[in-house]
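Sharing a chain and its predicted structure for anyone who wants a worked example. Both blocks are below, sequence first, tokens second.
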Amino acid sequence: MNRFISQKFRFYSFVCIALLLFVHGYNLKEGYLIPASLVSEPLTFTSFFEYFISNGLLRFRIPMLFMISGYIFSFQDTKPYLERVKRRFGTLMIPFFVWSAVGIGITFLLQQFPITALAVKNATIDQLGNNKPYAELGWWEVVKRWLLAPVSYQLWFIRNLFIYNLMYPFFRWIVTRYPIPWFGLMLILMIKLFSFFVIDAQGMFFFTLGIWLNKSNFPIDRKPVWFSAYLYWLIFIGLLFIKTFMAFEFDIHNAISFWGMMILHFASVIAGLIAIWFSADRVVSYFMNKKSFVTISRYSFIIFGLHVPLLPYLMQIAYLYGHNIPCYRLIFYFLVPAVVFCFCIAVGAVLRKAVPAAYRIATGGRGL
């Protein structure tokens, strides 16, 4: 792996995590969006903009992170598999347990005060669908929220990633021997939103795509002859405009709407990944040569682990006090994620300097 590919991986990993705040910071009446979600509220500039950004333009992030992870893991085949899995447990699952506990602790603390308790209740982010204060739950209910259904719901990504690491020998075998049948099957299952237990077709598709790119020696460090930045950006943005209008204008209970939305979504994601990866080399070079950017990027995992549940709770507090402000939804869509981003960077900087051992455990050794 040459130096520039390594820089691109680090750049895009940080950008994908930073943009996660805006994905989780939308304030549409639909509290939980999947790629095919249709919206029941009126079409306005604010609702269109938030859906287009959060449930459209920024949806490339998780596929890119899975793809980068698959590429890097397969690049390390010179090391023993069990040794790598053991290390990944320390870099993925230990932080999972840490940040899940942090999310429970933050939630419990905020439930002790009337205003913040109301914000926690209104956020409705409990994955088990129970909005009771934690003090009213039994110990097993709390343990389930720690190990199985974290209030810090973004942690599903590192849990699934660890499972894909465990499945790596099979993934490597299938993509090197039968890539076309495998990716064809995964594409169909991905459009159907297939999932089993905690694994899903989208994660497997893009994780194994990263493996295939490495094992096939695909030249990801240079633009293919068939690549046209204009064409792929046009497809990417154009499909998202169509999908966003469909989300507001189509019948919520129509199966054809669902399949149409899913096809548009994954077509736009693939076009977006190609457009973003191959057309932004100058941007990557510029920022990766800026010391301030490189310094901030060290705290990407702190941002990932800490931003939820802080972001939805702070958004609800902002609504309580700022709902009379003109254009408050759009203002808070930018302001609250920005505040949480800065707070996470500050916490990361303090932890890294004051308690480096705890920082190492919480981040899996990243950013030291």
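Comments welcome. The mean pLDDT is 93.
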